Amino acid sequence: MKKLLPLLSVLFLIYWGCEDEKGCSTNDVELWGDCYSINNTIELNLSSRNLTGTIPPEIGKLINLTILNLSNNQLTGSIPSELSNLTNLEKLYLFDNQLTGSIPSEIWNMTKLKFLSLYYNQLTGSIPSDIENLSSLTHLYLMNNQLSGILPNEVCEVGDSTNILSNNLFCPPYPSCIENNIVIGDQDTSNCN
Question: What topology does CATH give the domain 41-183?
Fold first, then answer.
């Protein structure tokens, strides 16, 4: 029996749990065929990798991420609300994809975000007054989407550097800060009252 114990221990580890069927350990997240450590992944740069499909909600398990760059791919579908689990995230780059739907309301509560770049997608919906919660934001790039509605005055409270909202469907009147730190540019106002 004593000789069998080491062998049984090895078999137990193989069967129960060091790795799942994709080869990732239980402390990893599998994204687009690669494994990423839940505890040790601080930056994830998958820009210009020809990624397709939707953004997996499992990405929200990488709780120590400070930078997430999925820009310049062919990602589709909506932005998963699970990104709000990334409470340490400072830079979120999802630009130049084919993302649709509205920006998840949870995004507006990510207080450590400094850069939010969602331009060149097909995002819809409006910007809520909750945008004022982005107290660390310095750069907001939402141009070239299909965002609409009235811009709340709270948009003036975020971003002390550059906010670009051009080429959307925002309706006037625009907040008074537009001329100072927000580039409103051309807007399609054909559906405005």
Answer: 3.80.10
